[in-house]
Write a structure and sequence with these properties.
By secondary structure, the chain is mostly helical. About 75% of the residues lie in helices and about 0% in strands. It has a domain of about 40 residues.
Length: about 90
């Protein structure tokens, strides 16, 4: 038997063993995947915020989000009447 054949056989056996273990401990594997996904997302976000080429995009987007929130508050305040209206009328200021 050649070295390549032995190596492929060992890798196939390991793959089958991992699939079986995955079925047995499915909930633990799913929890581990979610933890890894969260850590990866945080590290990518941290990299993008601190990278000199992309951090300016995040600053602009933060400012835009704050402005949109302020505009939405003003619009809600303008569309609601500060005084109670008469019964049956739906007056908007």
């Amino acid at each position: 038997m050649t070295t390549a054949f032995v190596l492929v056989s060992v890798l196939e056996i390991v793959a089958v063993a991992l699939v079986v273990v995955g079925f047995i401990f499915e909930k633990k594997v799913i929890a581990f995947e979610e933890v890894c996904e969260d850590k990866l997302a945080r590290s990518i976000a941290r990299f993008l915020r601190t990278n000199k080429y992309t951090k300016n995009m995040f600053k602009k987007e933060t400012v835009n989000v704050q402005r949109r929130a302020e505009v939405a508050k003003v619009q809600v305040a303008q569309t609601t009447s500060p005084t109670p209206s008469r019964k049956g009328s739906s007056r908007v200021a």
